[in-house]
Amino acid sequence: MIAFRPFPRATERFERCERLTVAERVIAPILVDLGPGFVSTGSRERSWASATFTGARHYLSLSGSGDDAMARAQALRDAIGAIEFDVKGNVIADIAVTDIVAPADGSVRLAIEALAVEAC
């Protein structure tokens, strides 16, 4: 006999989304923009504060492959400021592709820094 399992309630799906980290919420639209062949390879964060704001600086690593991976990475570098980020409770105050490396294996590695400031 096949066990019946109902679909998760909408609130359960919403709760799973609530658990996404700031880094995951920043990486998701970047990966969509880069397209197939790119993956997140890591992230770390460091607390940040100014006289009036608090937040964190996020360091994101991505890698990709494909015939046009370098072109897509360079296009992202030029357009990353136009991407809209849905980061609950935060505003992405600054974001940039800080490094693009093309190792001999044909892959492309990107380093991205993002400053997330806590929304008041």
Task: Write structural notes for this entry.
With about 120 residues, the protein is α+β, with helices and mostly antiparallel strands. The protein has a single domain, classed as STM4215-like (2-Layer Sandwich). The chain contains 3 helices and 4 strands; from the N terminus they run H-H-E-E-H-E-E. It has helices spanning about 10-20, 20-35, 70-80; strands at about 40-50, 55-65, 90-100, 110-120. A 4-stranded antiparallel beta sheet has the order 1-2-4-3. Strand 1 (about 40-50) and strand 2 (about 55-65) form a beta hairpin. It is elongated and about 45 Å long.
Layout of helices and strands:
Layout: H1 10-18, H2 22-34, E1 38-49, E2 54-64, H3 69-79, E3 90-101, E4 108-118
Antiparallel strand pairs: 1-2, 2-4, 3-4
List descriptors.
4-stranded antiparallel beta sheet, STM4215-like, elongated, 120 residues, disordered N terminus, alpha+beta, 3 helices
Instruction: Please give the share of residues in helix.
Output: 25-40%
Q: Give the overall form.
A: elongated
State which percent range the strand residues make up.
35-45%
Q: How is the largest sheet built, in terms of strand order?
A: 1-2-4-3
The CATH architecture classification is 2-Layer Sandwich
Radius of gyration: 17 Å
Which H/E pattern describes the elements?
A: HHEEHEE
Q: Give the N-terminus to C-terminus distance in angstroms.
A: 53 Å
CATH class: Alpha Beta
Count of β-strands: 4
Number of helices: 3
CATH topology: STM4215-like
Question: How many structural units, i.e. domains?
Answer: 1
**Overall mean confidence score, pLDDT:** 86
Structural class, from helix and strand content?
Answer: alpha+beta
| Unreliable spans | 1-15
The main sheet comes to:
4 strands, antiparallel
